[in-house]
C-alpha cells in the first residue's frame, strides 16, 4: 500500500510524483502572487480599499462635469451612476463564489467562466489592463499637478518648476511602495488614502461654501457652438464614469477575505462595500453640486484650482490629494503586478523571486511615469478612458456575466434591470470617448512637450 503505483493505459507505470510536484509548484506560485498570497482580510479592509479605489481624481472633476452636463442631466446621471454601479458591484460580490467550491479571485477568471477560457481572457484582460494602467497614468498626473499646486500656493514667489519634475517626485514614492508584496501589506497606505479622500472632499465643498456664489455666475453651457456643447457633454459622461471605477479591483479585494461554507466571503465584503458607497456619496454629491452651484460654468477641471483662498486650506487639500492618490495608485497597480508576475512565472517559467518582482514593478512604475509626463491632459484623459474602458467593466460587463451565469427568467425584473444597465453602459462607452478625444486634441494644439 505504501508504494502504490498507477498503471497507465500503454502498459508503463507512472508515479503520481510528477503531478504532485506540479501541483506543489502551482501552490507555491499562488502563495507568492500578490492577490492569492494571504486570505486574512477583514470587512473594514474591503471598505477602505473600495473607497481608495473609487474616490480619487474623479471627485475633483465632478463640478466641471456638472458644468458640461447642466443641472438636470448632471444630477440625474450622478444619481443613476451611483445606483447602477452599486448594483453591478453587488453582482460581482455575489459571483465571486457562485460556483460551489470555486473562488473567482480575479476579474478575468470570472470572465473565463462566463464566456469560455480563451474568449473570456480576450474580453476581460485588455479592458481591465486599460482601466488599471489608465488610472495609474491619470493618478501620476493628478499627484504631480497637486504637488505643483501645493508648491505654488505655499511659495507663490518661488521660481516656476515644471510639472514634469513634480510627476517625477510623485513617482519616486512608488518606486519604494510598489515593492510591498500583496494587498494586505498596503492596508495601512489604503486606510490613510481613504481618510484623505474624505478630508479633501470635505475641504473642497466647505471652501466652496465659504467662498460663496460668485458674481455674475452662469449655469448655461460654456461652449459657444452646438457641436462644442455636445462634445463637452460626451466628455463629462466619461468623467462621471471614471469617478465610479472600483469594480476593476473588487474581486481581487474579495480574494483577500477568508471564506467557509458557513461564513462566505461575500458577507463581510458586501458590508465593506455598503460602507464604502456611503462614504462615496458623502464625498461625491456635495463636491459636485456645491462646486457647480458656487462657480457655475467657470469652474476649473480640478475644483481645487478654482479655490485659491484661504491659501493654507487649499495647500492642505492638495497635500491630502497627493496622499490619497499614492494609495489609489497602489490599489490599482496590485492586480497589474499580479497579471505580469503570473505571466512571468507561469508562461515564461521564471522562478518566483524578489529580483523578478523588483525589476517588473520598477519597469511598470517608470512606464506610467513616462506616459504621464508626456501626456498630462487631465480632463481629456478622464473623459476618454472613462468611457472607453471604465463603462464596460463597471456598468455592463458584470450584467452580461450575470445573465450568462445566473440565467434569470426572461422578462423578469432581474432580466430587465440587467438589459437597461447594458444599454446605458453601451451608450456611455460609445459617446464619452468622442468628447474626451476632442478635448485631448484641442489641448494638444497649444501643449508643449515636457514643459
Overall description:
By secondary structure, the chain is an all-alpha fold. Helix content is 73%, strand content 1%. Helix 3 crosses helix 4 and helix 9 packs across helix 15. The protein is globular, with a radius of gyration of 23 Å. 48% of the residues are buried.
Descriptive keywords:
single chain; 451 residues; mainly alpha; two-stranded antiparallel ribbon; 2 strands
In terms of DSSP E residues, the strand content is under 5%
Shape: globular
Oligomer category: single chain
The mean pLDDT is: 84
Structural class: mainly alpha
What gap, in angstroms, lies between the N and C termini? 75 Å
Order of helices and strands: EEHHHHHHHHHHHHHHHH
Write down the Rg.
23 Å
Main sheet attributes: strand count, strand direction, barrel closure = 2 strands, antiparallel
Q: List unreliable stretches of 5+ residues.
A: 1-16
Number of helices: 16
Helical content (DSSP H or I, runs of 4+):
over 70%
Care to give the gist of this entry?
The chain is mainly α and 451 residues long.
Present the secondary structure layout.
Layout: E1 6-7, E2 13-14, H1 17-32, H2 43-54, H3 57-69, H4 71-95, H5 107-115, H6 117-154, H7 163-177, H8 187-211, H9 226-243, H10 250-254, H11 266-295, H12 303-306, H13 311-347, H14 354-374, H15 378-406, H16 413-446
Antiparallel strand pairs: 1-2
